[in-house]
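Researcher: We're reviewing a set of sequences before deciding which ones to prioritize for further study. For each one, I'd like a predicted 3D structure that I can look through quickly. This is CBS domain-containing protein. If possible, include the structure in token form so it fits the rest of the review sheet.
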Amino acid sequence: MFDSLLIDEHRKVLAALHQLEETRRKILYVTNEEGQLRGTLTDGDVRRWILSGGDLEGQVGDVCNHIPYSAREGYRIADIENAMSTHKITSVPVLDDDGCIVDVLFWEDLFHKEGSIKKQAPLALPVVVMAGGKGSRLAPFTSVLPKPLIPVGEKTAIEMIIDSFVQCGVDDFYLSVNYKSKLIQAYFEELEPAYRINYIHEEKPLGTGGGLHALIGRFDGDLIVTNCDVIIKADYHALMAHHSLENNDITMVVSLRHYDIPYGICDIVDNGQLCEMREKPHYNFLVNTGLYVLKSSVLNLIPENQFYHLTDLIQDVKERGGRVGVYPISDKAWLDTGEWQQYCETMAQLRA
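Model: Here's the predicted structure for CBS domain-containing protein, in token form for your review sheet.
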């Protein structure tokens, strides 16, 4: 059935985002109380809403696409196939005479051609994994193993990260290494992966960005840089399209984080008098995940052999008038293994 794809127009955007994460279709059909189709909602619609300053407490009806393609009962299969191919859509709602959804047609069910509509070219760009840190927050594991080799399910953390890019056609990887680098190299020599691994050797710790100086002049175009303790479940083709469309020098992938304060929050004025009290407020934040898209030209700003974070690079780019944008993803699309609590939460998520 298609009930999991339906959402009332009055539901909150945050609830819709969570529902989108639960369905592999990546689309919701927005309806009114009578079940009539009012629009469609994708993660792209939510992302544009957030970037325009929209509130996650807003209503789905204000965010959705109000002119979706739909079919009527008695449709012709040939018309559906033509419409899906033309509009690059993988599902079509079927409406009765009252405009209510009575069925949803899916491309692979009708034509047994799964994936043929939205087939995308491989991403032809390098991915750099910053893997030189000690991972002291994961001690005592990291007293024995480097952080990239910490097990996450049946694989290591760095394999999980690399595999997410391999699925998009990336085959050119650079690992910036320092702490226990020989163990990392030995692991990949034994693994013998089909993709290329290149190493950037840091003679001393250089932060989350200092090692990138060694790559100046190596690339034209864009590259992706990621920390070695974050696993991002995102559409990297959409990320790169956004980066290009916005003409960003740097695009930072950010995750939505929702926090509930279980107490009344008191605001006071200078004399200690209560100004306002907010009972159990809710807050939404955009949090840096540690994954970035960079224009290769910004690498020229990174000093040689100096401790330098990617956040320093962002500041330097902004001070020179460059464009630094963000690309929001949901909280469930970001798995963090950098601290024990986060590691345990990630493992629980993977087992669920």
